[in-house]
Each structure stands twice: as structure tokens, then as C-alpha cells.
Amino acid sequence: MTFLLQLVVTGFSLGMVYALVAIGFVIIINCSNAFNIAQGHFVLIGGYLGYTFLVLFHLPVWATFSWRW
Fold it and tell me: d(Cα 47, Cα 42) in Å, to the nearest integer?
């Protein structure tokens, strides 16, 4: 039962990330009438920095997200 709950939470989290990226594409297309794929680079940079701060620098989770506020 715990494994099923973990799968549900992981799937929901990944789905929300996909939804945020898709909403970003829709906003860019509606505002500028041009398809801009450079947004994916910013998502990749954010993931890479989060990984770097968490794994390589051994910072706590709250410190990795506090630079964005």
C-alpha cells in the first residue's frame, strides 16, 4: 500500500511539472503568436541548479529554493 501511495504522489508531481511547462508554452504562444522553445532551457537550468545545490553542495532543501524568492 505504501508503494502505491508513493507511485501516486510521484506521478502527480511529475504531471504537475509537465502542466507548468505546457502552460508556459501556451502563455508565450498567446502573447507573442510565436512558438518559442527557449523556455525549456530555463527549466533545465533550474533543475540543474537544484541538483547542484542539493547533491554537490549538500545544502538543505529550504536553502536550494530560497534563492528564487
Answer: 9
